[in-house]
Design a protein that fits this description.
Blueprint (H helix, E strand, L loop, with lengths): L7 E2 L2 E4 L13 E4 L1 E10 L12 H18 L7 E8 L2 H6 L1 H12 L5 E6 L10 E10 L3
Helix pairs in contact: 1-3
């Protein structure tokens, strides 16, 4: 039996090819119409640009809060995010703490899962950063 169709959100439609298993924690694709908002890579530092510590979960939580704060400047909300790219310096640490990372994600984004990509990198530009998250949002056109 095929998976249930994904819900349509105002301005965003999840792309779920027939016969494909439903992805866990992300969407295979999103179609959207509206105002584009591009959020540069956000790391786990506070408003004073101080990294919150070495822990990947703490850095992910802060980076996600930073994404939400930038979105708000454009009148966008987490549910408007169509795409995210996560850069991590240690994918093993990411997988080992994925439950906690998922909890931090849901605290900021609820159960909205855009198209996401995770990339392991040798390092990030800011010393001490272990994760960087960039996002693209689409604020729906007024009805």
């Amino acid at each position: 039996m095929p998976p249930a169709p994904e819900p349509k959100r105002r301005g965003l439609s999840v792309l779920a090819p027939p016969g494909w298993a439903r992805p866990r924690g992300y969407a295979n694709g999103i179609a959207a119409r509206g105002t584009l908002v591009f959020v540069a890579g956000q790391i786990g530092w506070d408003a004073r640009q101080v990294v919150v510590g070495e822990d990947i979960v703490a850095q992910v939580a802060q980076a996600l809060r930073n994404v939400v704060t930038v979105l708000q400047e454009a009148g966008a909300r987490p549910e408007h995010v169509a795409r995210m790219t996560w850069y991590v310096t240690d994918r093993h640490a990411y997988h080992a703490r994925s439950g906690e990372i998922g909890s931090a994600y849901r605290a900021c984004f609820g159960r909205h899962y855009p198209a996401m990509t995770l990339v392991e990198v040798a390092g990030l530009a800011e010393p001490g950063a272990v994760v960087e998250i960039e996002a693209t949002a689409v604020v729906p056109d007024p009805a």
